[in-house]
Amino acid sequence: ALERGPWWHLFGDPVLDQLAARVEVSNQNVAAAVGAYAQARALVREQRASLFPSVTLNGGANRSHSSSSSSGGRTGNSFSASIGASWEPDVWGRLGRTVDSASASAQASAADLASARLSAQGELAINYLTLRQIDAQKALLENTLTGFQRTLEITQNRYTAGISAKTDVLQSQTQLANAQADDAGLVRQRAQLEHAIAVLVGEAPGNFSLSSAAWNPQVPEVPTGMPSTLLQRRPDIAAAERRVAAANEQIGIARSAYYPSLPLGASYGFGASRVADLFSASTSVWSIGLSAAQTLFNAGATTARV
Description:
Layout: H1 14-26, H2 28-49, E1 54-66, E2 74-87, H3 94-160, H4 166-200, H5 226-229, H6 235-255, E3 264-272, E4 284-290, H7 301-305
Antiparallel strand pairs: 1-2, 2-3, 3-4
């Protein structure tokens, strides 16, 4: 749960800072993790609501007709309205464990979100710094190509003048061709990195480009104790630990199935043939009581769940 902050600022690159900010809002993996976390939090609220009584309100109106050979038939109306409440006390701890399990799952989902965000940001930083490294290599290679081109011209002139052998010309041509092949490979690698960065920031690769720029590498200092403490901040490990906690709560929920459920219920309602008489005292009906249910045989399903 520790706040990691904008760690990419340590590299001192404003373009990287802008791209990392776009990952927060446009990366699709991060957006999916945000949705999963919101769903997990909603499930916690749903499970917590089971600890409190539920109240229901019902109403109805019916019109019926009965036929008779003597009277020719009779048509009548009936109206009803009732309010009811039910509550199951958490005698065996099943409801509380359900809430705890949902809370642990929500915390695991929060760790998954942090892991997705950290993964996207880390991959962005790697791809971006590699791209800038290729830019530096390409700038150096362009100077090398200029030198090889000049060397080939000199060697060709010397060969024309009869000073150098044909092998010297072929060697210069080979050096220039190899350097040109290396340059084409760097162009291809740079395009691949641009496409990867475009996907990370949620943009179509055809609409995204990064211009070449001078690169001043700034390597942050790594604290001495970082390798030993970094494990405590890994969100994937935190998510795994929270899922173990949720699974432990599920064991307690399954064990509560050995005991009977004891829900409490109460209702109060009215019934009449006319709406005007619906809420009169003579037509009211109420009920309150405790029920119990216990599974006697389920072919070992409860034991299997535990």
